[in-house]
Design goal:
alpha/beta, single chain, 8-stranded parallel beta barrel, TIM Barrel, 13% strand, 294 residues
Length: 294
């Protein structure tokens, strides 16, 4: 399943002056990200304000971005939610539009049991032939998918491509990697700050936020690590650390969306209930993004 890509960015969703999704600008952002070192994009994830998007808006972006990228970049559609039936229908619709895979997030707010997660994901996976990346992010969902649960899900369903793991817990990373059911199950770090440590214990890729700004550098870090040049990989990691930290000073995607706007994209503000970018954080972030501006 590694053909989905190693460096992927969970892209922001641009809004126009009226507050509507700007599909044409979303296409332009996706093309820019692929040109700047990403293998593909995740559309309508948490960085894309997926919870604030309506079904029609998501489908419009899925179709337009995949049509524009073609074979140059993969499109992973964020179709998982906390309503199993709606997730199935959105996944089926995304498949009809030709996306390469879907992102299925552990259901938020409802706090499902591990058996509930198996049933929820299993129902979606049985309804599609698409590869699926399971997204575990307890900080947003208030529910942690345990490594054994992910292993069992992968054993039951051949279209589990891998996991986007955002616990930040190296022990959990290790358990997932040790227990995975199939060698083709891929581990993507869900957090930029721990990408290099994840590679050291057998991880493969990254689904990134910072990749909006520094996709080339993230790829160079992975390439250096693969080549055995750990010193170079460590230097790149250290150089990126202040930028990555600043991007998560307040709720993602507020900072990264503002930052991409300084690159010349008409991204618009975040939708309610997210707030505007504070002026003090703009002043902090500006010199950090300047070296990576095209």
């Amino acid at each position: 399943m590694k053909q989905l890509g190693r460096i992927l960015t969970a892209m922001i969703t641009p809004f126009d002056a009226s507050g509507a999704v700007d599909v044409a600008e979303a296409v332009r952002v996706a093309q820019f990200l692929v040109e700047r070192g990403n293998d593909g994009v995740v559309v309508a994830g948490s960085t894309g304000e997926g919870n604030a998007l309506e079904t029609g808006e998501k489908l419009a972006m899925f179709g337009a971005i995949k049509k524009a990228l073609g074979s140059s970049g993969t499109v992973i559609a964020g179709t998982g939610g906390n309503n199993t039936r709606q997730s199935i229908e959105l996944t089926k619709a995304a498949e009809q539009l030709g996306v390469d895979a879907v992102l299925l997030t552990v259901p938020a707010y409802v706090k499902p049991t591990q058996d509930g997660m198996l049933a929820h994901f299993g129902a979606i996976l049985e309804a599609t032939a698409l590869p699926a990346v399971i997204y575990n992010i307890p900080g947003r969902t208030a529910a942690n998918m345990l490594p054994a649960t992910f292993t069992e899900l992968s054993r039951r369903h051949a279209n589990v491509a891998g996991i986007k793991e955002s616990t930040g817990d190296v022990n959990q990373f290790t358990a997932i990697l040790r227990e995975r059911a199939r060698p083709d199950v891929t581990f993507w770090s869900g957090d930029d700050y721990i990408f290099l440590p994840s590679l050291a214990i057998g991880g493969y890729g990254l689904i990134s936020v910072a990749g909006h700004l520094c996709g080339r550098e993230l790829r160079a870090m992975a390439d250096a690590f693969d080549a055995g040049d750990v010193a170079t990989a460590a230097r790149i990691h250290q150089d990126l650390t202040p930028l990555i930290a600043a991007l998560f000073t307040i709720t993602n995607p507020i900072p990264v969306k503002w930052a991409l706007g300084t690159y010349g994209f008409a991204v618009g503000p975040c939708r309610s209930p997210l707030s505007a970018m504070p002026d003090t954080l703009k002043a902090t972030l500006e010199p950090l993004i300047a070296p990576y501006r095209p």
